[in-house]
Amino acid sequence: MDVQVRTAEQCLAGGLDALAQALLIVDTDGVVCHLNRAAARLTGRDAGFARGLRWDEVLCGADRDRPVPGLTPGTQPIVLDGEDTPRELVVTALASGVPGYLLSVSDAEDGLELASNRRQQRLLQVALENGRQGLWEWQPREDTLHFSREWYAMFGHAPGSIRSLLGDLQGLLHPDSVSAGRAALLPMLRGDRDDFEVEHRIRRADGAYIHVLSRGRCVERDADGQALHVVGTHVDITHLKQTEQRLLESRQL
């Protein structure tokens, strides 16, 4: 695996770790590259142990007497190891510099969880399939930022032109988004938590603002617990926000 693919995978994995939804990244052969913390809790498998195993072995167990679904994009039922009630498995092809698939597992009997996870999966699927997701990594001590090619394509800025949070990216934030972004970042930087999630608006090169769902996870700290390395994703949710606004306006008529 080349350096660019490893970097993209690390950034994507960092963004997924911030989610409550159980998610796995697998390669084109179905071998697990990463499972987020929610998936680790659901399966009872340590992320390091699961890496390198086949996805069906991780989810359904090595000794099973039930057939497992194929690794085909779409939605299908799946019975996890040690369970009898089917859950919902959603498979999405990746298109963010990482060859393979994103797998999502939801409780098919919990209506609220299922609806929430389906909405989240639709966001991820649209972002992945249409390049509406950008990957990033940040070294807070030096305030150095690195973005994927997809991020620069999404915002229209010249590749390599956004190099720092305080010097560059903060100037692209909508004024109404600055305080929310700061409030989301500070607990993660201090070590109160390892991840963050925030919605804000970022200005494109053409001057238009797009709604972004930003998620990140600290993957390295110093001896005092201060964040040294943070990775994550920016997902363009403008279409979703516009749809929600139209629905709200229609209900007020």
Question: How many helical stretches?
Answer: 8
Q: Count of DSSP E strands?
A: 10
Give the biggest sheet: 5 strands, antiparallel
Q: Structural class, from helix and strand content?
A: alpha+beta
What percentage of the residues does DSSP assign to strands (E)?
25-35%
pLDDT average, as an integer? Answer: 79
H and E order: HEEHHHEEEHEEHHEEEH
The radius of gyration is 19 Å
Note the gap between the termini. 55 Å
Looking across the biggest beta sheet, what order are the strands in? 2-1-5-4-3
Envelope shape: globular
Unreliable spans are: 1-5
**Helical fraction:** 25-40%
Q: What's the structural blueprint in terms of helices and strands?
A:
Blueprint (H helix, E strand, L loop, with lengths): L2 H15 L4 E5 L5 E4 L1 H7 L3 H4 L4 H6 L13 E5 L8 E7 L7 E6 L4 H19 L3 E7 L4 E4 L1 H7 L22 H13 L4 E9 L5 E13 L5 E10 L1 H14 L2
Antiparallel strand pairs: 1-2, 1-5, 3-4, 4-5, 6-7, 6-10, 8-9, 9-10
Please, could you describe this protein's structure?
The protein is an alpha+beta fold and 253 residues long. 34% of the residues lie in helices and 28% in strands. It has eight helices and ten strands. The strands form two sheets. The chain has a five-stranded antiparallel sheet with strand order 2-1-5-4-3. The chain has a five-stranded antiparallel sheet with strand order 7-6-10-9-8, sandwiched between helices. The protein is globular and about 55 Å long. The N terminus is likely disordered.
